[in-house]
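User: Some background: our group keeps a shared notebook of sequences we're curious about, and every so often someone picks one and asks for a predicted structure to add to the entry. Today it's my turn. The entry only has the sequence so far, pasted here. Could you supply the structure so I can complete it?
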Amino acid sequence: MNETTICAVGNVATQPVYRETAAGPSARFRLAVTSRYWDREKSEWTDGHTNFFTVWANRQLATHAQASLNVGDPVIVQGRLKVRTEVREGQQQSWTSADIDAVALGHDLARGTSAFRRAPRPEVPASTPAQPEPNWETAPREPVAVT
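Assistant: Of course. Here's the predicted structure to add to the notebook entry:
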């Protein structure tokens, strides 16, 4: 698979928007990633250009993102980069967007602390019969007589 995997470190720029879809939960938010560099003339750190990404989370990751993230939170996002260019109706200029299909995301602990809470596992319905544990033991071998 030739996909571009990216790890971006930045701040949550918009409150996550959560939706229930036919394929399962989905959430999206904007991520602001600003480069910083040392300005030798001023002897201080200076902000550079800011890139904005739309981060998409699906299924359980979407549910956790919506419950955990707020505007301004420092986060680390890992996922697949998707860059699209299109021309909108009635406009002559092209429009480019950079999206990240998140595989993992979390707070950046280099810039603060976080209190992790493990999500409860979904309960197995009582109507589902319990699967017996497989027998991984091998039967003992019969001794071989040597003549």
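Suggested note for the entry: The radius of gyration is 24 Å. Residues 74 and 109 are 8 Å apart (CA to CA).
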